Prior knowledge:
By secondary structure, the chain is α/β, with parallel strands linked by helices. Helix content is 55%, strand content 15%. Strand 3 and strand 4 form a beta hairpin. Helix 12 (344-356) crosses helix 13, helix 12 packs across helix 17 and helix 13 packs across helix 15. The termini are far apart.
Amino acid sequence: MKNIFKKIFTVFYLLLVIMPGLAFAQELREEAQSNEGEQNPVYLQAVISIDEAVEVQKSSIFDASDSFIPNAEQEINFYWDFGDGNKNEGTEAMEVLHAYKEPGRYTVSLTVDDGINTSTETLEIFAYRKLIFLMSDQTEAQERINVIKDYAEEQGVFIKIIDSFGSSTEFISEEILTKKLNEESNIFQKSGQIVIWTKENAGLNSLSRYLQANQAEKNNLSQQTITVLENNVNAIISRIQNQFQLIKPKSVIVAKEAAIYPLIESQNDKEFIYSLETGGYEYEIITEETGKLRPWNFMSYLVNFLINTGIPDNTIALLLLLPVIATVIAFMKQFVGLTTFGIYTPSIMTLSFLVIGLPAGLLTLFAAIIAGAIARPILKKIRMLYIPKMALVITFVSLVLFLILIFSVYLQLFDSAFLSIAIFPMLILSTLVEKLISVKSEKGLSSAIVLMGETVLVAIIAYFLAGGEINFGFTTIQLSLIKRIIITYPEIILLLFIANIILGKWSGLRLLERLRFREILRHIEE
């Protein structure tokens, strides 16, 4: 008994003493670096305040008021060089106006002189004829996006990119894009055209959330056209149409990736559409008049109602996909013959995988299982009731997940935006360790491992059929067809009643049973 308590004490000591010590050591290092910087203070520091991109033929304010000046009463001279041959200087030149005549990149220089010391800062800005605001989570297209950005600058067009590259799911991408969109609201308001190039509907969902928090922006957006880049143009039209009333732009143009080039070259929407038409590009234009619902689309009316109240369509999709997930699990159990921890456990696994992604979901699940497997033998010899013992196991698992979060943030594996939405699914997955331990106690370790393995397999199959992305390293596969059909025609869910009734009437041998008893069946047939 003493040895058991020593082990428990050692584990908690590692969790609660050593880890805070490491964090404290990190703080000391940062403080030492800060003190080292303070030993060489800068007495005069020039600072330029200006947007990274300004419009040509329009005066912009170049501001030096954020410069650090030790003695405000001393006469200060400001020397500006705008990089286009124009200069400005004087004691009153803290804020100056300047307009560039031609688009391009310019290096702005500011020198602050107090008569004793001088400080110079340079800043590169771009003068544009047109500003495009691009939202993207297309990780595999990063290099192409950089090429497009360089081409645009050659045409005098500046593309402001906000990205969520590396996002494992639509939910994570939406969260990151929404956060960045709010941070870049100033330049968003100045944009002449908006381009969304995201997987699924993450870009439009983040834009909807931004507009809900900034109602005044809706009036500005009503005069703009949004361009959505999508390889399968027809597949996403219904989801965009559902959100049109919430965003209320002038129109939405859906086209393939190559359409970004005529968009850059065109001066306005009319010219852009003409270029798409004459260039043979596949595209669709969505307006308030298109995509009217029919009387038999009664569930679509309800979906539109929820979307117009501000609920992201991917959240609605998750709810609508639950019957599909349950039916897939029922099929795998009743017809194929795989065994699982009931229907609830694989369903909750699948939903968690859809929210946080398959890699993060499997990592959380296996970490919880390993932690539970370690905690169980330690507590085995303690004479206590089952429920309090399981509470201790889950407590230990939660502390292990807490450590994983610390290390993932410390090593920058995940950012705060990911963790803010992933923490709840991770906690749900961690509680599933109770199922494994319960079966292990009743049927043994091997049976518990097999049952958990088949449950995870069924959950992964349901995850894939529900539109989840599976990355094999060398390639990525995703089946979005079922998800898109369900969102477009939610009435199809009613057919699942019939499908489950048919499965419930099935009384024949399951597929795996036929494989297992194929020799016996062959002899019977003979």
